[in-house]
Design a protein that fits this description.
This protein has about 290 residues and is mainly alpha-helical. It is built from 15 helices and two strands. It has helices at about 10-20, 25-30, 35-45, 50-60, 75-90, 90-100, 110-125, 130-145, 150-170, 170-185, 195-210, 215-230, 240-255, 255-270, 275-285, and strands spanning about 10, 70. It starts with 7 loop residues before the first strand and ends with a helix. Pfam families: HTH_3, RNPP_C.
Length: about 290
Amino acid sequence: MSKTQPALRIMGDRVRYFRKLKGLSQAELAKDICTQATISLIEKRNKVPSMNILIRLTNRLGISLDDIVVENQDRTQKALSQVGRQVRHGDYAAAAPGLAKVNVAKLTSDSDQKRYYYYRGMVELFVNHAQDEAIYYFGRVLNQQGQTHQDLAAIMATLGLGIAYAEKGTTDRASVYLQQADQLLKQMPLNEGRYLDVELTIYWHSARIYFELKAYDEVLKYLQLGIDLAVKNDSLFLLAELYTLQARTYKQLGDAQASGAYQIALALAQVTASRDLLTQLQAEAASA
């Protein structure tokens, strides 16, 4: 008799990555949840703990289950889940080839279709620099059946429209979509544990749009929201990018705080091994 295939497969290397990103030791991650030995088995042997332990670990790490587990899905679902992880962490170039492997015809649920169109919009925007194509796909998200005002995909797609129109130089429309995304976010408070990376992404992109619009007071407001949230949760996710944009904003304003912000951003870029960002910062900091 063949054994039943487990419902989940855990990626131990991803657990290790997020633990180190959070600055936790194995013992600190395990405290009051499980034993350090359990964490070691998860990271080294991909050992799947109980669902209760798994959920508590992801909450402490500030990530979702999708970040560290793979369900026994079909090939299309696996590809879509992988693309989702890459998009959430801003790795759009890596997401592009994976997205091409997704068979859209096999996405039968409204939720999966909205995820696909949102990911496609982000790839068009940040990899292909095709703003009109991105606008089309973000629009597909908002036009899908089953749309509600408390829909995370709606917030992200609305924000995507704001970014696309800002990059096209259509400032009025960019402002409208940015305000809509902000209102949607207020109607749907996010669980800081599970959706920390999503909320930080929203603050980061909101600040980027306002930077394009030269609304620097708003830039600094959203950056501070993001920085405070990341620090509160001991997360390095997007923190170097947030401080980088803060430094650039201070520089535009002729504010002496630019130098200090550049130094923090440089240190964070080194810690997170963000080589491209580090190169940019070294050149900018020299003239700050």
